[in-house]
Design goal:
There is one protein chain. The protein is α/β, with parallel strands linked by helices. It is globular. It folds into 3 domains: 117 residues, Rossmann fold; 160 residues, Rossmann fold (3-Layer(aba) Sandwich); 84 residues, Erythronate-4-phosphate dehydrogenase, dimerisation domain (Ribosomal Protein S8, Chain: A, domain 1, 2-Layer Sandwich), CATH 3.30.1370. Strand 6, helix 5 and strand 7 form a beta-alpha-beta unit. Strands 7-6-8-9-10-11 form a 6-stranded parallel beta sheet, sandwiched between helices. The protein has a 5-stranded parallel beta sheet with strand order 2-1-3-4-5. The protein has a 3-stranded parallel beta sheet with strand order 12-13-14, with helices on one face. It comes from Kushneria sinocarnis. Belongs to the D-isomer specific 2-hydroxyacid dehydrogenase family. PdxB subfamily. Catalyzes the oxidation of erythronate-4-phosphate to 3-hydroxy-2-oxo-4-phosphonooxybutanoate.
């Protein structure tokens, strides 16, 4: 039987991995080499730095990260050591898109502007960015895309550079991995010059990696001119984040944009399948067997419901970004920022994705039907079964 060490924040670890050996749960941010000396498998999230310092001299033969990003893992070193590796690309992408839409709906309501009246710039056209673009454009929200590596690789002429994106958009969404070297580094991609170029009233949403924004420069901009609308889910120096910046942004959350139970469980399922393939083991568990039923299964709307009001109602029934902002403040007051940041992630309440909510509508609710489906909710027409 194998010895499997896992970040305590990964759901369904016992259900997926318990048949393969002994499962030991540990805080991901404080894992040490001594705790892994006799481990065969290591399962992490983004808070654990996986490299030679952590694993040299251990018997670990497989590492799985239940996350989209892999910048916390020295993949080249693992390959050199013959250690199997898998991530979970796309697992929580829909959850992050839900987060962004919730933020945009909140900004729209606060500003008294139509959701469709803004052009959105998306930096990074990967799993999250491409899905965000698809949902926004389905809602008739125009998008501009910046992704230099993909533009080069695919010879895409429809992408624009970041400076053009900043100049021509009302909302800027960052969804890039953290890349420190090479032709297209993303560390401090939004640097002091570009932060200064952001226009008064522009909305910045960062839900990729905290180090992609020079948060010191952002703090200075907001201290001098509090004229930007800012939603930050990711931060430099997590969990010891800049509390001066925390107090200046409109919405602050502790790296939980992708924390739907659906996304997290999908990540566990993906690394379980990868580990099983690596060791030649049968895959006996499937996510469909283990995923809990949504406690809110259906909302019924009449055909005369105002489309934007109905969309806000459905979105907040699934996920209200304000709840997470208020919850982080409560944790900060009780435990301090660093401990509260991690404790909230560890104790994060159950959250489901938009797609788990079925909206029941009358057949003739054409505009309302279109906006509900475009936003990512499931649809049930009146008179239909299911």
């Amino acid at each position: 039987m194998m010895r499997i060490v896992a970040d305590e924040n990964i759901p369904l670890i016992d259900e997926f991995f318990g048949d393969h050996g002994e499962v030991i749960r540990l805080p991901g941010r404080s894992m040490t080499r001594d705790q892994l000396l006799d481990a065969d498998v290591l399962l992490v999230r983004s808070v654990t730095r996986v490299d030679a310092t952590l694993l040299a001299g251990t018997r670990v033969k497989f590492v799985g990260t239940a996350t989209i990003g892999v910048d916390h893992v020295d993949v080249d070193w693992l390959h050199e050591q013959g250690i199997g590796f898998a991530s979970a690309p796309g697992s929580n992408a829909e959850s992050v898109v839900d987060y962004v839409l919730s933020g945009l709906l909140l900004m729209s309501e606060q500003d008294g502007e139509a959701l469709t009246g803004r052009t959105v710039g998306i930096v990074g056209a990967g799993n999250v960015g491409s899905r965000l673009q698809a949902r926004l454009e389905a809602l008739d929200i125009p998008c501009l895309i910046c992704d230099p590596p993909r533009a080069d690789a695919e010879e895409r002429e429809d992408f624009v550079d970041l400076d053009t994106l900043i100049e021509r958009t009302d909302v800027l969404c960052l969804h890039t991995p953290l890349v420190r070297d090479g032709a297209h580094p993303t560390h401090h991609l939004l640097d002091e010059r570009r932060i200064a170029a952001l226009r008064s009233g522009q909305i910045l949403i960062s839900a990729g990696r905290g180090e992609c924004v020079d948060t010191g420069a952002l703090c200075r901009r907001l201290e001098a001119h509090r004229d930007l609308r800012v939603i930050l889910d990711v931060w430099e120096g997590e969990p010891t984040i800049d509390e001066a910046l925390y107090r200046l942004v409109d919405i602050a959350t502790p790296h939980v944009a992708g924390y739907s139970v659906d996304g997290k469980m999908a990540g566990t399922d993906m690394i379980h399948q990868a580990m099983s393939r690596h060791f030649g083991l049968p895959v006996r568990k499937r996510l469909g067997q283990l995923k809990p039923e949504s406690w809110l299964r259906r909302i019924t709307l009449t055909g005369w419901a105002p489309p934007l009001e109905a969309l806000m109602l459905c979105a907040r029934a699934c996920y209200d970004i304000r709840r997470d902002a208020m919850l982080l403040e409560r944790y900060r007051r009780h435990y301090g920022m660093a401990e509260g940041f991690d404790r909230m992630r560890r104790e994060y309440p159950l959250r489901r994705e938009f797609s788990t909510l079925r909206v029941s509508l009358k057949h003739n609710a054409g505009e309302l039907r279109d906006i509900i489906v475009s936003a990512g909710f499931s649809l049930r027409l009146a008179g239909k079964q299911g």
